[in-house]
Amino acid sequence: MAKVFTSFEEVLSHLKGVVDISESKVKILDESKLRESIIDDLIYTAVFSEDYSLKEEVKYLIREIANEYGAVASSIHDLYMAMGKGETKNFTTPAVNIRGMTYDIARRMFKVAIRNDIGAFIFEIAKSEIEYTYQRPSEYAACVLAAAIKEGYRGPVFIQGDHFQFSAKRYFENPEKELNSIKELTKEAVDAGFYNIDIDPSTLVDYSQPTLKQQQYHNYLNTAKMTDFIRDIQPEGIDISVGAEIGHIGGKNSTVEEFEAFMEGYLETLTKKPGISKISVQTGTEHGGIPLPDGTVAKVKLDFEVLKSIGEVARKKYGLSGTVQHGASTLPEELFDKFPQNNCSEIHLATGFQNIMFDLAPESFKEEIYRFIEENFKDEWKEGMTREQFLYKSRKRGLGPFKYKWWTLENKEEILDAIEKKFEFLFEKLNVFGTKGYTDKYIKLVKTPYVKGSTKDVKQKAKDIKLEAGAD
């Protein structure tokens, strides 16, 4: 079992002979011991220590060790530009939202990547997930980079902010305040090593307006403002990959005409280059799938023509990588090889892996979580919902408050084996095996430090329950 250090002096004593720290630089002296045990202790300290300053020092140290090791937080922008020019084979980059057991699940992604020569794969977390999983960007990035070290992965590590979404209600009450809140989160993420950011003002699209461009106005306006902001704060030598979205996931399907109207307004408003690298569209899916009364997920009819037609225009007219598919992890397995065939450059996968976690978790542990949710999130139990539907939609609320228990489950390896098997299957279907050659060719490794003190206090509580994130 990994330990949680109690002071930075204790960290330094355990690093003696393993990692040398001098003049703010690190040198790895004993790679095998670092990977065997020390990195486990460092990440458990970064996540579960109650000492904020110690957590910050350890997250900084993990980033420096990762840079020295050769696992470097990077932007996928240049590879996506090559895709837009037709310089790569057809593949769809998997972007995986890891909501719990982050260090261990990231390790399994790296295992699959190393085994299959994969370079194009993304670790991401959405704005909403940051809150309910109790994972600020700096913690998430530290988990991913520590996992890379543990598994012996060298190369670019793509960490992404997913759905940095505007609240329509808050925006139309005070546009500048809502824009600034998204900027604040984006700055926090970039400081932590998120060099891929998906901006999502698609919630602001107003279908009551008479023209497509007017409908997309607040969407393209804020996407352009955020792109300009990101270009101002990105580290020297890195063009952060910026994603945009034209169709709110769960809403009506997107059209080529809507995309062109968005791009016209976006390019007119944008003042700094480069612009976006991809476009998220709605094809008929919904985040997490649609639960039926018995708790199973309804089959969804996905319109691949939307991906294909918009993706073709995105590549040929605007030089983008293609379209992005959200809400896909609960789709039938036989569909996944169709994404690379239909100009889909990226696919976001989350709930399917969360489902594996809950399906295989011990029954007593699940019931503990379910009781907690029923007691603290009754307001999410909508009229007409069965208990099974409510728990399926709300059980994600049990990831943050029970984080330590997830990380230390007695049958953790069984869950991780199942998730790794799913990674292997999906990544092969998405045709990313062998893409390391592309990342070697197009992605320049730029080593940057973690900006200490940029994160918010992570000691969060679930409602009024005094259940610490690190408590056993």
CATH architecture annotation of the largest domain:
Alpha-Beta Barrel
Distance from first to last alpha carbon: 13 Å
Number of strands: 11
The share of residues in helices is 40-55%
Report the uncertain regions. 457-472
Q: Helix tally?
A: 19
| Residue fraction in strands | 5-15%
**Total domain units:** 2
User: Secondary-structure element order, as H and E?
Assistant: HEEHHEHEHEHHEHHEHHEHEHEEHHHHHH
Largest sheet: 8 strands, parallel, barrel
Structural class: alpha/beta
CATH topology descriptor of the largest domain: TIM Barrel
How many whole angstroms does the radius of gyration measure?
21 Å
What would the principal axes of the Cα set say about the shape? globular
So, the CATH homologous superfamily of the largest domain?
Aldolase class I
**CATH hierarchy, class of the largest domain:** Alpha Beta
What are the SSEs and their pairings?
Elements: H1 8-15, E1 19-22, E2 25-28, H2 31-48, H3 52-69, E3 71-74, H4 77-84, E4 93-97, H5 102-115, E5 122-126, H6 127-132, H7 137-151, E6 155-165, H8 168-173, H9 175-192, E7 196-200, H10 212-215, H11 217-233, E8 241-245, H12 256-269, E9 278-281, H13 304-318, E10 323-325, E11 344-349, H14 351-360, H15 363-376, H16 387-394, H17 403-407, H18 412-429, H19 436-442
Parallel strand pairs: 3-6, 4-5, 4-11, 5-6, 6-7, 7-8, 8-9, 9-10, 10-11
Antiparallel strand pairs: 1-2
Overview of this protein structure:
The chain has helices at residues 8-15, 31-48, 52-69, 77-84, 102-115, 127-132, 137-151, 168-173, 175-192, 212-215, 217-233, 256-269, 304-318, 351-360, 363-376, 387-394, 403-407, 412-429, 436-442; strands spanning 19-22, 25-28, 71-74, 93-97, 122-126, 155-165, 196-200, 241-245, 278-281, 323-325, 344-349. It has 472 residues and is α/β, with parallel strands linked by helices. It contains 19 helices and 11 strands.
